[in-house]
Specification:
With 541 residues, the protein is α/β, with parallel strands linked by helices. Helix content is 61%, strand content 7%.
Length: 541
Amino acid sequence: MSIATPFEAQKANFGVVAMALLFAALLVLLDGPIWLVKLVPTQDGPVHLAQADLIARFGWGGALQEPAASFYQWNPRIEPNSAIYLLLAALIRLTGDALVANSLFLSLYGLVWIVAAFAASRAETERPLLPALLLLPIAFGVFIHWGFYNFALGIPLFLLFASFWRGLNGRRDALAFVATAVFLAALYLTHITSVVAACLLLAADGMARAVATFERQGTKAAVRRLLRDGLWAAAAALPVLLLIASFLLAYQNIAGETASTEGGIAQIIRRVVAATYLFTFTRWEVIALAPVLGAIVLAGFVALRRFRSGDLLWPVFFVLVVALSLLNLKTGSALLSERLAPYSGIAIVLAIASRQPAPALARALGMAALSGLVGQTAVRAVAYESWAPTLESELAAGRDNPGQSFASADLIAQRDSHLFAWRIRPTLHAAQTAALAGRGVGLSSPLPSTRYFGYFPLQYVEARDFMRATPDWQDTPDVASVAKFRAANHGAPQVLIVSSSDEDGVAFAARFGYGDCRTTETGAREIDVCKVATRLSAAND
């Protein structure tokens, strides 16, 4: 036995322990802030959670009870964003508490991100630490806080698909074909953007392999390889692509909400260059994440100098993502360029992975990336705590009015960095948060309405769709149409929740006949929970 053997074993054991400690530290950084509050502030999250709670209570397609039965109906289609509802409903059944289930989901999401980041990085290099650390800030960037749960979950699953695809190493047998098709179907159940990204990855791999074949064997062999790989990949993706086409055709006449003004070429380039998908609550996040961005720039410069030391997969993928983004396609009001933006960042980082700097510089850049992740976590913790009293007031509104129907109006100043509302609106769906707590029904969200979206497990019944009954509840609420809807629906919505920062929420509610208000001030924000005034409440006032 060699004398060096015990020392080598000790060194290996130390490496395992170090990686385990790093993994635990990363898990604390990503998931720690989640457990500081009852409900993480997200924009659309309450809608998904309320739907999952109904699925957990009544079963998918089961008979609904009042008040949900009067306003909701089951969507007869299985849509491409179904995975999150199955997962959340299962967690609600397991825990018996929708809020705990939501926190568990977000924690599992953070765990999947860590595993996926290391798996994708390890598929590119034997030194996966730096690229994994550069990828992780995407996890709790703006998309998960917008409440795009399905879309956000699709990103780490795409990274796992990329690791799987690299592992095939050019295999094109029957088992690889079936596994690829199944993986694409799993991505479809999260979000169609992750399928688009996976198809772009297949195309990029085919092109990269064709270029390598051209350099070794010439044009004819390269063309044959490109056609063979292209046909194989197209056949594997065909079932999912047909499902996507069916989905797009089914909802082609739904315009969605008012189209974003951020769809121009300049905005598309800004998303790619400035990585705006990383920033959510406040402009301080730019400073917090500056070390990460600096590390990517420096590592990217080194990678350009070592360009030929890696293959062309991720550079070609980056070009394809940017090219498709510049076409400025959209479904309804959703911009494909906005959804593809984080995939451009993934392409840059994984292109760096096989072209890393020398170990000493890579360690320094890894420390910079880790410090940026720490900064992002600190901002998240402060922002979550800042929003906690407001969201708890919404939950209290539901508990105080069990079984009621709710509407909400968000008058909090938008793009206010001081209110931790730079790019999200956590009180936009306050009615859904209250309905969740009180086992009632929220009526004022555009997502379940087939007027705006509707591709969710539960849709508003068209004849009793509050969002159809008003010209535009969120932007230009109309008193007469609300009164007409209430007269036709036994006074629903019975409770109006108004969130405000620089406007009089009580006066707003009074315009619609909700004169009995209870106000809760939560720092610079105010929550008014209002009902129609009765003679008794008027006398008490």
